[in-house]
Amino acid sequence: MSVLSAPHFHNEEAAILHLESILWPNGANCPHCGSVERLNKLKGKSVRPGLWKCYACRKQFTVKVGTVFESSHVPVHKWLQAAFLMASSKKGISAHQIHRTLEVQYNTAWFMAHRLREAMRVLNIEPMGGEGSIVEADETFVGGLEKNKHARDRKHQGRGAVGKEAVFSLVERGGRVRSTHVPSVSAETLGKVMREQLYTDTHLMTDDARQYIPLGKHFMMHESVNHSIGEYVRGGTHTNTIEGYFSIFKRGMKGVYQHCNAKHLKRYLCEFDFRYNERDTTDAERMITALQGIKGKRLTYRA
């Protein structure tokens, strides 16, 4: 039997109950006043599924209130299908594919995908690394025109970056990745990110890019490999972990999404970071983790 044969992917009442079990593991609570008492699930032929009333503040609500699903007219079971597709697709799934699979309008599919990426965004980020931890740091570029691939770009300090957006990532070996859309890859820009997101007693590994030379002095140890002379591994010194992450990210951005507006790049990074960080879980577990992130977030812009 297919995973997508589960009732909550097809039946609206089952979908709402499933979402309630994820967001309200200890029972319903009112999103308006926070009360967990004097709540009643309304019933009747004229009542829409999943409608509750709080008799403390006298307001009605559903499990979607206070989440990225609020004010959406898309059925909850289709939200769950979209969440599963995005959580289980290693290199992502396009809004056009969601539009065709779920039989919704393209702009609806686009908005759904961005809301789910917002759900994947991690709040209250703690620094990475620390004593005994190895963190690899590197940057890559996405977008741009083919005709500019040999042009030199002073801002990004190299060839092939003209018109591209810079992405800086940190990955802890055996742990998590964290990616940031940065305006440039200068020592000043990357240094600010590294000081905010890494503990100083981290063992840092990078390539031989010159901006990392002064930055490495802020950490307990800094080792690098010299890619310019063909050195990619020297004992345990390498950046293969972050390069592996970038290979998945760039295949997804080029092969699946093809074009990304710069103002939305941060949300795509959340999506790829999320799947990498949840790589040791099943697709169903990854979907549940993504849905747990819909609370307390709203997106109001439209396609």
Q: How many alpha or pi helices? A: 9
Low-confidence stretches: none
Give the H and E element order.
Answer: HEEEHHHEEEEEHEHEEEHHH
Largest sheet: 5 strands, mixed
- State the domain count: 2
Cα-based radius of gyration, to the nearest Å: 22 Å
Q: Overall pLDDT, averaged? A: 91
* Record field, number of beta strands: 12
Q: What is the overall silhouette?
A: elongated
Q: Beta-sheet strand percentage?
A: 15-25%
Distance between the first and last residues' Cα: 36 Å
Helix and strand content put the structural class at alpha+beta
Helix content: 25-40%
Q: What strand order characterises the main sheet?
A: 8-7-4-9-10
Summarize the structure.
With 303 residues, this protein is α+β, with helices and mostly antiparallel strands. Helices cover 34% and strands 16% of the residues.
